[in-house]
Amino acid sequence: RRSCEKVRGRPGVGAFIPQCDSDGRYRPLQCHGSTGHCWCVDSRGQERAGTRTPPGTAPRDCDRPGIRWFFHKTTGVSVTLLFYLVGLCLLRAS
């Protein structure tokens, strides 16, 4: 069994249960059924920094190829590299 399936097999009451794909790997988007928080994970199931969304917020598109989420240390905002680079280009052009 893959690691996602092993973790999924022993949940406690109210505990987070990881979502696995048909091959037993972690799905890129994970959501906690009890709290409603969602976040992106890497192939080992580790949360990717800056991707957690609060309950009632649309979850991120974690599968989108070529788009990487990162946490901007100065502003404290999660943005995609694509939008960050577009913003830099616009700032330099003005």
TrEMBL record:
GO terms for cellular component: extracellular space. It holds the Pfam family Thyroglobulin_1. SMART domains: TY. It is found in: Secreted. Residues 1-62 form the Thyroglobulin type-1 domain. The chain crosses the membrane at residues 74-93. It comes from the Eukaryota. Keywords: Disulfide bond, Glycoprotein, Membrane, Repeat, Secreted, Transmembrane, Transmembrane helix. Disulfide bonds join 31-38. Gene3D superfamilies: Thyroglobulin type-1. PANTHER family: NIDOGEN-2, SECRETED MODULAR CALCIUM-BINDING PROTEIN. This is Thyroglobulin type-1 domain-containing protein.
